[in-house]
Amino acid sequence: MRDVLLQAERARSFLSGLLTGLGVMVVVCMTSLCDPHTGQRWLPLILAGFTSGFLLLRGRSYVDRWQSITLAGTAVIIAAAVCVRYALELSSPLAVSIVAAILVLLPAAGMAAAAHVPHTIYSPLFRKFVEWIEYLCLMPIFPLALWLMNVYAAIRYR
């Protein structure tokens, strides 16, 4: 019995480490992809939005609270880092004002959700609906990433 508990704890800590590494990598990649001076600057923003939404919704499926927090935190940090990069790169008063508003509303929405969500009992239908939204966030990630890497153009003009 002790051996099983030890192996389960190792597996849990290994998965926590993998999720932390994934989170750092995704935040760095999404932040570096979202360049406000490129021609198609909307494409990396949509990719970052879908990735962030998927990670936020995927975090609810983990039993371990720290693993869920890691994925949800990664999603929020992606949004905040992309906003900060846009504010620093564009340096216009409008961009800085919009980013400041987003950076104030993001934690406020998180605190409101943290106060409301744990005390609410959700129906299986609502849980299934959220799961379908998660799948809808997952579906466009790979086609958008391939489009961003110009794989479709390379195949078409081959």
UniProtKB/TrEMBL annotation:
It comes from the Bacteria. Keywords: Membrane, Transmembrane, Transmembrane helix. Residues 2-156 form the EccD-like transmembrane domain. Coiled coil: none annotated. The chain crosses the membrane at residues 12-33, 69-88, 94-114, 135-155. InterPro entries: EccD_transm, T7SS_EccD. It holds the Pfam family EccD. This is Membrane protein. It comes from Mycobacterium tuberculosis.
